[in-house]
């Protein structure tokens, strides 16, 4: 994880952070998320993150299923703050950056601000274990996870770097697969809010198995 700053606990992070609502986007602690920033309000958000010195952005999903206001949608209560660890200018007004996840947070309130982008007062203490790398990874059923991954790859005619997967620690493996998974906002939010790595892996396996079962049922129906 390429990062210069050290975050040992909630006191190392600001209480109010800029947030970037993005459906289907899942950032997890120590995971890397690429972002292509082009909207003026979010370009300003990146500039301000560097100007303020913290380089932090809170990734969170809009809860569109319970929000009639498309311009200012309701947010899920839990997100993950990340630090900008890579940034490049595209030459056409965009920023291409990478966020490295630090810790999850729970929204306390959304204050009124003068910025075009949204900001939230957040609490990191419910997820204090996020600051400890690889915590609880020994409880992950790696065999079941790899079995589900193999079946998913076979069903979708996909290939993967198995050497990289075999060498990855359980935390990196579970979080990377969760972040890259093709599932919708509710499933992504469930994986984000999982109380521990073991539960996150179990949710990922369950969602994958349900997806595969639906595909098998659909294929069987098509043959009749």
From TrEMBL:
Pfam family, one: LON_substr_bdg
Domain Lon N-terminal stretches: 17-212
InterPro entries: Lon_prtase_N, Lon_prtase_N_sf, PUA-like_sf
Identification of the protein by name: Lon N-terminal domain-containing protein
């Amino acid at each position: 994880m390429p990062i210069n700053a050290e975050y040992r606990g909630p006191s190392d992070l600001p209480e109010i952070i800029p947030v970037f609502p993005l459906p289907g986007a899942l950032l997890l602690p120590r995971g890397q998320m690429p972002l292509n920033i082009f909207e003026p309000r979010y370009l300003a958000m990146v500039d301000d993150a560097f100007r303020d010195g913290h380089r932090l952005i809170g990734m969170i999903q809009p809860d569109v299923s319970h929000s009639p206001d498309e311009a200012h949608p309701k947010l899920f209560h839990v997100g993950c703050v990340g630090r900008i660890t890579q940034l490049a200018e595209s030459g056409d007004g965009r920023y291409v950056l990478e966020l490295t996840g630090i810790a999850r947070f729970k929204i306390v309130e959304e204050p009124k601000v003068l910025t075009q982008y949204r900001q939230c007062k957040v609490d990191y203490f419910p997820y204090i274990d996020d600051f400890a790398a690889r915590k609880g990874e020994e409880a992950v059923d790696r065999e079941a996870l790899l079995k589900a991954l193999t079946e998913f790859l076979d069903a979708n005619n996909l290939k993967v770097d198995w050497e990289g997967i075999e060498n990855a620690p359980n935390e990196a493996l579970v979080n990377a697969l969760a972040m890259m998974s093709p599932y919708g906002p509710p499933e992504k939010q469930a994986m984000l809010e999982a109380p521990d790595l073991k539960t996150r892996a179990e949710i990922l396996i369950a969602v994958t198995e349900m997806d595969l079962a639906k595909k098998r049922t659909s294929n069987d129906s098509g043959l009749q």
